[in-house]
Every structure is written in C-alpha cells, then in structure tokens.
Amino acid sequence: MIKPLAYTFFSTNELKPAGWMRDQLQRQADGLAGNLDRIWPDVRDSAWIGGDREGWERVPYWLDGFIPLAFLLDDRDMQDRAKRYIDAILDRQQPDGWICPCPPEKRGNYDLWAVLLICKVLSVWCSCTGDARAQSALEKCLLQLNLHLNGNTLRNWGAARWFEGLIPIYWLYERTHDGRLLELAKKLRIQGFDWPSVYDSGLIEGLTKGWDQLSHIVNTGMMLKSEALYSRIGEDTGFAYRALQWLDAHHGTAAGIVNGDECLSTSSPVQGSELCGVVEFMYSCEQLFSLTGDPMWLDRLEWAGFNALPAACSPDMWAHQYDQLANQTSCYPMREKHFRTNGKEAHVFGLEPEYGCCTANFGQGFPKLALSAFMRAPDGVALCVLQPCELNAMAEGKAVRIECETAYPFRDRAILHIRCEQPTEFTLYIRVPGFAKAAVVGGKIIAPGTLHPIRKAWLDETVEIVFTFQPELIPRPEGLYAVRRGPLTFSLPIPAKVEKKEYIRDGVERRFPYCDYLLYPEGPWNFGFASGQFDLIEYPVGNPFDPQTPALALRTKLRTVAWGMEDGICARVPDKSQTGSICEKELIPYGAAKLRMTELPLLKNRQ
C-alpha cells in the first residue's frame, strides 16, 4: 500500500488556461519548445524514433513539456506530432519490456536516468489521452527494470535521480496494485543517492570546487522531493525543509531559486542559475505541495515560476539562456571563463547555449505551472496557484465548473465563478500566498500563508479575492538589497542593443528565429537605492515578460555609484564610497528584464 497524496493534479482535459497564461503557453507553442521536432537534430532525428542522433534524455525531456502543452492548448497538430513520437517509441519497445534505443549488448552501460524519464513521459501521455497501449508499455518497462536492477545497479545520473522513477511507479501502482512495482521502488531507493545523508552529514558544505554530482544544480532542484516521494511507502523526516533552508542561506537568489552554474555557486548576484535547475526546482515544489499539503511550497513555486523561468527566455520564447544572473549587465560571449564550471557563452540567449539539456527540458515549466492552478482535495477542490483558467471537473459525482478571472500576479484581485448543474456540497480551498500583507476572501479577512476552506452547497456563486501587497527591500548578502512585491521580484532594466548571430556548429544550424541573440548594454546601470519608497504603476497586461511591455512597474529614486564591469560582467559589489546624483527610475518585474540590476546597495545618504 502507498500513502495517499494530500492533493492530486487535475488532467489537461479538466483544467484549461485562460488570459495571460494561455497567451504565454501559445507563445511557447509558437516558439522553440513547440518546434524542436522540426528544427533541432537531437529531437527531429533522434534514435528514439529511428534516427541517428541522441538517444538518451533529450526526447523524453522535450515530450515531458510538449505533451501537456499540446493538450492544454487543444492543439490537434501538436497532439498528432506528439503521438508520432509516442507511436515510434512504443513500436520499438523490445519483447522483454526494454524501451530505450540501445542494443541488448549495451544495456549494462546505459544510464538508466533515461528509463526513469521516459516512464514518467508515458504516464503523462496516459493522463492526457487514456491511451491503454502506453499504460501497457509502461507496465512492461517498469517490470523489466525491476529485473534489470538485479544485475545492473544504478549509477551516474540514474543514481542521482532515482526518485524520479517513483512518480510513474506510483501512478501505475494506483491502477494495477502490482506489488512488484513497490519492490522496484525499494530497489531504486537502496541503489540511489542518499540525499538526506549528503546534507545532514555536512558533506555538501565542502563541495565548492570543480564538478560533481552532489552539488550539480539540476540534481539539487530535483532532489528536494526525494524523501517526500519515498515517504509514500517510507517515512519523511522533513529533509526537503532542511535542504531548502541550507540552500537559501548559502546559494539562494533574489528570484527565489538557487545559484548553480553548473554546480552550486554561492549567492553572488553575478553567478548563474541554470534553466534546467529552475524548471526542476519548480516541479519539486509542485510535487512537494501535492505530497505534504504545505502551501509554503506554492509560494516558492510562484517565486521561481513568475520570475526566474521567464527571465531566462526571450519574450517570443524562441531563445533561452543556460545560465541567468540576478545582476546581468550583458549577454555576449566572454573572453575569459567566469562561471564555476560552465563556458563563456552560457548566459547568451539562443538555441543551444552551453548544453542542449535545457533546450529540451525548459518547456515543462509553464505547462506544469498552468496545471498547478487547481488541485483535487479529498473533500473538494483547491485553488493553489492563482492564474486565469477554467476547471471542469466532478465533485460528489456532479459536474462543476470554476472559472478564475484574474491577471495575478500582475494584479491583486480575482473573481471565481462557481457553477454546478445542481446544488453540490464540497469544500473550496482558496490559497492566500504567504507574500500577502493581508487578504479578503468572500468578504472575510484571511491570514496569509493559508488554505482557506469554504464548505457549502454550491450552485451559481461568485467569490471575490483581494490581496494587499507592499513593496519591500529584501536584504541580500554583502550589503545589497532586492525589491519584492508579492511573488514578483523587481529589477532595474538596462536598455539593450540586440545582435542576431546565425551560424552552424557541430552540424546544428542557428537560423532566425532560432539563432543566438547577443545583448549589449546601452544605458546606465550603476545605481543604488536612494530610498525605500516605491510607487506602483499598472500598465496593460499584454506580454508581461517583454521588457517593452511590462504589466506593472515600481517608480523609485536611485543614486549613481561607482560600479566596475569587466568582460561584460559587473563587479560583485560596488564601491559605495563613490556616489553621485539621484534620479527617478522604473523597476520592472525580474522576468521581463533581460538585462537587469536586481541586487543594489542602499545609498540613502552620501557615503
């Protein structure tokens, strides 16, 4: 037996995006993640579908985001393209259940991370389509893996990410109750990394040089959920909370994520955060809320998802960064290596900066965020991540429709329209973010950081939600500060000259619109805060993550300060002894500012 989840996800058939979120998903569909099967050899010509290109993680990574995107948008062409890949993968499954593209004699050296990942993809496809073939293939694959592990133990990426396999294992077990699946779950736990010991022993504190699996940023984003996932058949000692507390203290950023370029890289605003680490951190937060019911994880999800995720993508979603910086004064190739283990172009916007893992994987971020809007509670429905959407589901055996009308997080108000075919009693939980200073739900004052239950017989009802957010200066290391209002971090945008770069490298073509984009600063950026006062300005909500069309801004006074820049990277801290004049500037959401200064000194008086 496995322990029940606190909250469960609705399917793409029940939950649909609206408003700005639907527009954002459509940009993704029209952009890079929606077209990799047409333009990128590692997906277009992958060994997973009989080609001669990469046959490991990249197609599963891509499908993990592309499939829910296709069904959230009800895009028949995208659904057909996804089915082409699923059909090819199922057709190539071996009689004994092995599903990955490698010959039998090479199975022993095949990194099983790809097996765990494709199994998760098959469960996603089944959830979207109900395809019985895929469930059967998943069952054969997992049972074959159970036998495979008797003579071929986990290693490398498979060992570091063993717990990701628990997600499809539990999904299938809830449908088949086959005890061999729980046997497999225990084998994965025994053979995989013991992440709580890595942190509780203090070992992680000494891993600050070179490249290693234990401080790898993507492993870090994933591993937060490891113990909580296993706790469905084991115990949970609260490891996720302990690990996050340590990571925030030593490697946290103003955008709510963790620095890692490629491995943990301190809290410096000029070190990088890998995009794969961002989307995997978000996915861990989604899973941790589902497992624990603690709304704190949804606060962290919003903080990362509304800031760090869009910051690393171009406004049209055709390009992305491998590494983003909180204080990002340029995005062009450096002369010398700056990042801990990444190269000189990791912060450039493009098709495949640094490694292609982010190219394949970043597409899961927005679709899974959209699927976190509502979740199913044991006695009703929970509004989890406020965003414009519509839910059509069943409660107490009766059809229920809930429309969420809002422009959150760019506005502070929402209206819920609840309509039932007949009076239906269930509990509607409404989350009040911990970022709020105050909240009123249905005319009642509700404490921030809670899930507020409303139990009643619903028929045709409207519930208004109003939040109070206040801009505040958040202390950062080394005497710097960042501004946050609600879930949004704000940055000073730097005007940029954009240079398109088309070329071919290693047989991969970069051609507009999927070429590289180099960003050069064309305006001043060397400022500190001259005041702790901020005036909110609201603009129309169009593309909220475009620096030309931010949905809101904070006007404040800034003072110039001596701040060096070398090789396109600003100094970690300025020289506060040399300050200049005061001016008024507008700060915009971090996710919209592609060149930006986020962490600034407070210079109320001349030094």
How is the biggest beta sheet arranged? 10 strands, mixed
Helix content: 25-40%
Overall structural class, as computed from helix and strand content, comes to alpha+beta
Shape: globular
Distance between the termini: 65 Å
Beta-strand segment tally: 27
What are the low-pLDDT stretches, counting only 5+ consecutive residues below 50? none
Total helix count?
Answer: 18
Mean pLDDT: 97
Instruction: Compute the CA-based radius of gyration.
Output: 24 Å
Beta-strand fraction estimate: 25-35%
SSE order and pairing:
Blueprint: E1 8-9, E2 15-17, H1 19-30, H2 36-39, H3 41-44, H4 58-72, H5 76-91, H6 113-129, H7 132-148, H8 156-160, H9 166-176, H10 179-191, H11 195-200, H12 217-223, H13 226-230, H14 239-251, E3 273-274, H15 275-292, H16 296-311, E4 323-324, H17 357-361, H18 365-370, E5 374-377, E6 380-383, E7 389-395, E8 398-406, E9 413-432, E10 438-441, E11 444-445, E12 450-468, E13 472-476, E14 480-485, E15 488-493, E16 496-501, E17 503-505, E18 508-510, E19 516-521, E20 527-529, E21 535-538, E22 552-562, E23 565-566, E24 569-570, E25 575-589, E26 596-597, E27 600-601
Parallel strand pairs: 6-9
Antiparallel strand pairs: 1-5, 2-7, 3-4, 5-6, 7-8, 8-9, 9-12, 10-11, 10-12, 13-14, 14-15, 14-27, 15-25, 15-26, 16-19, 17-18, 20-22, 21-22, 22-25, 23-24
